[in-house]
Specification:
The complex is a heterodimer. Chain A is mainly β. Chain A is built from no helices and 11 strands. Helix content of chain A is 0%, strand content 49%. In chain A, strands 2, 4, 5, 6, 9, 10 and 11 form a 7-stranded mixed sheet that branches. Chain A has a 4-stranded antiparallel sheet with strand order 1-3-8-7, with no helix packed on it. In chain A, a hairpin with a 6-residue loop joins strand 7 and strand 8. The radius of gyration of chain A is 13 Å and the shape is globular. Chain A starts with a strand and ends with a strand. In chain B, strands 2, 4, 5, 9, 10 and 11 form a 6-stranded mixed sheet that branches. A 5-stranded antiparallel sheet of chain B has the order 1-3-8-7-6, with no helix packed on it. Chain B is an all-beta fold. The N and C termini of chain B lie far apart (40 Å). The relative contact order of chain B is 0.35. In chain B, a hairpin with a 6-residue loop joins strand 4 and strand 5. Classes of the chains: A mainly beta, B mainly beta. At the A-B interface, strand 4, strand 5 and strand 10 of A face strand 5 and strand 10 of B.
């Protein structure tokens, strides 16, 4: 597609459950970023991929969060044992040669 | 990390000019971005500054002073659709990180 896509657009889950959030970047973009954004805040960095490898995962809050990008394109953010504090909008962005980040529409995660 | 400061909220009148300031503290500065984010939508790229001076793009201009750790976004001929949050993001840190850190955003309200 023309832009970054993310699925699902909304996810409601119960505390303690496992969730997967998917990001499909712009074709040809080698860099992929995950952020999360709470109401009234700017996006908070989670993890950055260059190709298939996680070049910087310093923003992941704890070991319940994990992300993969096995073929250097689509990425999946995985959250185990979800907590109410994980509720936020999870944004994915990709960039190419210009380093400008192009964001997807986000996944709104609600943990009940 | 980077300390980024921008006003929380600003109001302006349709047709007027508004300047949104952003100050930052970082080592290894490697670029500053401005993004626009409408409520419930993803951030969209507006401008990128890495050298001192003014970058003009239609009704929007962005200015950078690296020595002062200061940038502003100038919006001319304001329209109602310009009501949005404006995010300042700085790239820098040890080793010249490629990960932009976002400020909390400035909520701009344009009224008739």
């Amino acid at each position: 597609g023309a832009g970054v896509s993310q699925t699902p657009s909304n996810k409601v889950t119960e505390k303690g459950k496992y969730v997967e959030l998917r990001c499909d970047p712009i074709s040809g973009h080698t860099a992929l970023y995950w952020y999360r954004q709470s109401l009234g805040q700017g996006p908070e960095f989670l993890i950055y991929f260059q190709g298939t490898g996680a070049a910087d995962d310093s923003g992941l809050p704890n070991d319940r969060f994990f992300a993969v990008r096995p073929e250097g394109s689509v990425s999946t953010l995985k959250i185990q044992r979800t907590e109410r504090g994980d509720s936020a909008v999870y944004l994915c962005a990709s960039s190419g040669e210009t380093d400008t980040q192009y964001f997807g529409p986000g996944t709104r995660l609600t943990v009940l | 990390g980077q300390n980024i400061d921008q006003p929380t909220e600003m109001t302006a009148t349709e047709g007027a000019i508004v300047q949104i300031n952003c100050t930052y503290q970082t080592s290894g500065f490697n670029g500053l971005f401005w993004y626009q984010q409408h409520a419930g939508e993803a951030p969209t790229f507006l401008s990128y500054n890495v050298l001192d001076g003014l970058e003009e793009k239609g009704r929007f201009s962005s200015f950078l002073s690296r020595s002062k750790g200061y940038s502003y976004l100038l919006l001319k001929e304001l329209q109602m659709k310009d009501s949005a949050s404006y995010l300042c993001a700085v790239r820098g840190g040890q080793g010249g990180s490629y990960i932009p850190t976002f400020g909390r955003g400035t909520s701009l309200i344009v009224h008739p």
